[in-house]
Each structure stands twice: as structure tokens, then as C-alpha cells.
Specification:
By secondary structure, this protein is mainly α. The chain has one domain. 44% of the residues lie in helices and 4% in strands. The chain is built from eleven helices and three strands, in the order H-H-H-H-H-H-E-E-E-H-H-H-H-H. The protein has a three-stranded mixed sheet with strand order 1-3-2, covered by helices on one side. Strand 2 and strand 3 form a beta hairpin. Helix 3 runs parallel beside helix 9 and helix 7 packs across helix 9. The chain is globular, with a radius of gyration of 19 Å. The N terminus is likely disordered. Bound molecules: zinc ion (2 copies). The site of one zinc ion (ZN) has 6 residues, from loops.
Length: 278
């Protein structure tokens, strides 16, 4: 797709753009509900379905869910927040967050990472009973050959869904907070990969249109417009949701994926991303 796009000359590209129809599928509908039940104009929130929503509608939905005030948290979300607070508050020698903050985190088991991922996913990407769920696998992997890589996400169509992380690498982007920078690094990496997972699960792959999968999700090797927007929302809400200022290395994601650019972001978009290097 990338090659084909760049092989076209400019005239052909413009022609192709004009011929592209905006998607007419209902996947472009807003996911949020509107109005008051039993009153005219009321519509219920759409249930999340696998590969069924335009990526930018998912950005709106995840932003809305993260900003929702405390009263609107589900029981499940509240339980996850309490569980996370308990983990943060555990000062015993074998505490999970302490071990996650060791320079090498390999003493944290796969089951413990699974549980941590589940907790963070429930807090930041809550689902309702009618939504399809994200079922993620986790594996530690050795990425010491790629020292700047903390982890990666394997898509559903390519043997996933799975988050893999390296217990030895760290980004150097995080500062010490209520937990040390190595733990901050790994918690931020989980959230970084969860944004990939969320889009992989729920974003539709409609035929080319101005808000298509390849432009909004896939460019910059998966760190396109939709990923940037959701990652921004995670960073903006992390302090109120989990008490930590997380850094999802958004700038570095673009920097290291520069050869994966297919469409230039607009100036307005760039301003909204508030990119900064660590
Ligand atoms: Zn990434
Ligand atoms: Zn679509």
C-alpha cells in the first residue's frame, strides 16, 4: 500500500482522491448515545463491535469515556481502579510494582502482567456488557537487539492479539513519579500497546476514504492520527484515572516510524498532538 501510493504521480494521486467515495457504511456513526430515553431524538450508545467503527469515531468514544466524571464509572471500572491503587500502595518487599520497577523486570510473571494489563485496560478502555471484548495475550520477549524498543503489539490478523514486552529495555523518557521511572516506563508501554490493541480490535477496514484505516491508523507504522489522538487522551487523563503522569512516547513513535509516513498531518492536527521530545 505504501509503495503503491508513492509510485503514483501527483496527478494520479489527486485523481484517485477525487474518485474516492466517503464511506457510506453505518460504521461512521458516532458511538456515544444522545438525548434522553423515551424522548424524541434519543439514540442509544452503539455497542462496540469488532472491526466495525471508523477509527476517528473510536477516538471520540475513548476520549468521552476517559473524561467521564467519577459518578459514571462502572462497578467494573471502580474495582479496577481500586485494584490498581492497592498495587501502587503495596510497600512490601515482593510488591508487584516494586519488581516492575527493577532495572530488569523478569521476576514479574506472565500471569501478573496479564492481570496488570486487564486492570489498565478496564480503567482506560472500559466496555459495557453488550460490547465485544478485547482478549489479549501477553508474553515477555527479549528485544535487547533493539534497545529503543520496549514492546510491541501483534495484530489479531497476524497471530495476535498479543502484547510483548522486553523486561530489560527502558525508554529513558519517564521521570520518577509515585513509582520509579522503570515502573513508569513499563506502565506507559502497556498503555501504548493498549492503544494499538483498541484500534486493531474495533476499527473498520473500509474501502479507501478520507478517514480510512491506512491513513488514520496504519501510517507511521500504526502511530497515525487515531493512535495519536487516543494516546493524547490517555496522557491527559492518566493523572486523574491512576494517579500517574504517563508518557506514551508519542513523539518518539513518529520519529522512529518516519519512513512509514504516507500522508502529512495538517498543521491543526500537529498542534493538537502537542508533540515534544523527552
Ligand atoms: Zn507503538
Ligand atoms: Zn468504515
Amino acid at each position: 500500500m505504501i509503495e503503491a501510493y508513492h509510485k503514483d504521480d501527483r496527478v494520479k494521486r489527486m485523481q484517485r482522491r477525487r474518485n474516492q467515495d466517503v464511506c457510506t457504511e453505518s460504521c461512521d456513526n458516532a458511538i456515544a448515545g444522545a438525548g434522553t430515553p423515551n424522548e424524541p431524538g434519543y439514540c442509544e450508545r452503539l455497542p462496540l463491535r469488532l472491526e466495525s467503527h471508523h477509527a476517528l469515531r473510536l477516538c471520540d468514544e475513548s476520549k468521552r469515556r476517559m473524561k467521564t466524571c467519577n459518578d459514571d464509572f462502572s462497578v467494573e471500572q471502580d474495582e479496577a481502579r481500586n485494584a490498581f491503587a492497592t498495587l501502587l500502595g503495596d510497600t512490601s518487599d515482593g510488591a508487584l510494582i516494586k519488581r516492575l520497577g527493577n532495572k530488569h523486570a523478569s521476576s514479574v510473571s506472565r500471569d501478573e502482567m496479564d492481570a496488570l494489563i486487564k486492570i489498565l485496560s478496564t480503567i482506560f478502555f472500559p466496555t459495557t456488557w453488550s460490547d465485544d471484548k478485547m482478549e489479549l495475550d501477553f508474553k515477555w520477549t527479549d528485544l535487547r537487539g533493539w534497545p529503543s524498543c520496549m514492546g510491541d503489539y501483534t495484530e489479531r490478523a497476524h497471530g495476535g492479539p498479543m502484547i510483548r514486552m522486553c523486561a530489560f529495555n527502558f525508554s529513558g523518557a519517564q521521570k520518577d513519579g509515585p513509582v520509579n521511572r522503570f515502573a513508569m516506563d513499563r506502565l506507559s508501554t502497556i498503555l501504548h500497546e493498549l492503544v494499538h490493541a483498541y484500534l486493531d480490535h474495533y476499527a473498520c477496514r473500509c474501502a479507501p476514504n478520507p478517514r480510512s484505516y491506512d491513513e488514520d491508523v496504519e501510517q507511521f507504522k500504526g502511530h497515525g492520527r487515531a493512535w495519536q489522538r487516543i494516546a493524547c487522551s490517555v496522557e491527559e487523563n492518566a493523572l486523574s484515572l491512576v494517579g500517574l503522569e504517563l508518557d506514551l512516547t508519542r513523539f518518539e513513535s513518529i520519529q522512529t516510524s518516519w519512513d512509514g509516513i504516507m500522508y502529512w498531518p495538517t498543521q491543526e492536527e500537529l498542534k493538537r498532538w502537542r508533540l515534544k521530545s523527552a
